[in-house]
Design brief:
The protein has 331 residues and is α/β, with parallel strands linked by helices. It has 2 domains: 5-203, inorganic pyrophosphatase (n-terminal core) (Alpha-Beta Complex); 208-326, Diaminopimelate Epimerase, Chain A, domain 1, CATH 3.10.310. 38% of the residues lie in helices and 19% in strands. It has 11 helices and 12 strands. The chain has helices at residues 5-20, 34-49, 140-151, 156-169, 179-189, 195-203, 208-219, 236-242, 249-256, 288-293, 312-326, and strands at residues 23-27, 53-58, 76-77, 90-94, 114-119, 130-133, 222-224, 229-235, 264-270, 274-281, 297-298, 302-308. α1 (5-20) crosses α3, α2 runs antiparallel to α4 (156-169) and α3 (140-151) runs antiparallel to α4. The protein is globular and about 60 Å long. The structure holds manganese (II) ion.
Length: 331
């Protein structure tokens, strides 16, 4: 169902690797998003049912909003991992275009381990022993459905995790999805999951810190029509004062992106020794190009860079000088 012949072969190869190996590491990018985490937890349950041992580990803890997902408490940040006995013979890496996106958990994957790379990013480096990369899929969660289905292990728990992957990576079915996605979602719904309850957990579960941070961000909100850009400035002191973390800026970015007629948004974080820019685009605007010019990097839709030993005013001035020179209406 909804798979090309070559995809069917890949899915069966992945399933062979799942059956053949015993101890698995499940991981994603440093701070997993809903897609990466949904896949990690879906396979945590699938592998349990296959009688395997699975360790879900990321460089840092996933966002707290996902704590309602079954198995969330099993997810370890790298620094909390102490066990020395566990030697993985396979690793599943979700939603990472290259191996280094995983960060520190890579240290736990021995050379000999079979690496299964499942991803939907353009330009994936095919770093796995088995690779399934499909840029036309909404999410790795959509792809993972086919594996669960092939194994006959799609239950309500697994479906709930994969639904979160698809829901969050499509921005609540606003972008990057097609009729295949909806067909997969239809199969997930048949397991009895409650989409209303899931959406409520994902979207009405903001921490007070994130909302207070948003308040500060909105006070400093600015808009420049020439470049169709909205931005806010947040200082280190504000983060400290309200106890906000890096992860809390996701809500701010999401709201900034809703400003009318924006092509991209950015947040400037003022720290003692550096001025940090986090850029996100709307539609097809490429923010990576801008970040790379300042020695940073990332994705076309999300990128960042830092300017050291510079005042906030000068850093912003330098940034706009670059935009004036390089951004035209055709971008
Ligand atoms: Mn994804």
């Amino acid at each position: 169902m909804f798979l090309s012949d070559s995809e069917k072969k890949t899915v069966s190869k992945i399933c062979d690797a799942l059956r053949k190996n015993k101890n698995f590491i499940l991981t994603s990018h440093q701070v997993p998003d809903g897609d990466g985490l949904g896949c990690e937890l879906a396979f945590f349950w699938i592998l349990q049912r296959l009688g395997k041992k699975a360790l879900v580990i990321n460089e840092l803890l996933p966002p707290r909003v996902y704590s309602f997902l079954p198995g969330f408490s099993e997810v370890l940040p790298f620094d909390a991992y102490k066990e020395k006995e566990f030697i993985p013979d396979a690793a599943m890496v979700f939603d990472c275009s290259s191996k280094d996106r995983v960060g520190k958990p890579l240290l736990l994957i021995p050379e000999s381990a079979t690496v299964i790379n499942i991803d939907h990013h353009q330009g994936n480096s095919l770093f796995g022993d088995v690779n399934w990369v499909c840029k036309n899929r909404s999410s790795v969660g959509e792809m993972s459905f086919f594996i669960a289905n092939y194994l006959g292990l799609l239950d309500k728990r697994v479906a709930e995790c994969l639904y979160v992957s698809i829901l969050t990576d499509t921005g609540s079915f606003r972008h990057n999805f097609n009729s295949d996605t909806i067909n997969v979602v239809s199969e997930l719904l048949k397991t009895g999951i409650d989409p209303e309850n899931i959406a409520d957990n994902v979207y009405h579960n903001n921490s007070l810190q994130a909302l207070k941070l948003l308040g500060y961000a909105l006070i400093s909100l600015q808009y420049e029509p020439t470049f169709k850009v909205a931005w806010s400035v947040l200082s280190e002191q504000i983060f400290k004062k309200i106890g906000a973390t890096e992860q809390d800026i996701e809500l701010v970015i999401d709201i900034l992106r809703s400003v009318e007629k924006t092509d991209f948004v950015f947040i400037v974080k003022e720290r003692r020794d550096e001025i940090k820019f986090s850029l996100r685009s709307r539609k097809h605007f490429n923010v990576r190009k801008i970040a790379e010019n300042f020695g940073g990097g990332g994705h076309n839709s999300a990128a960042g860079f830092s300017i050291r030993n510079c005042t906030l005013e000068l850093a912003i001035e330098e940034f706009f000088r670059y935009l004036r020179k390089n951004i035209t209406d055709s971008d």
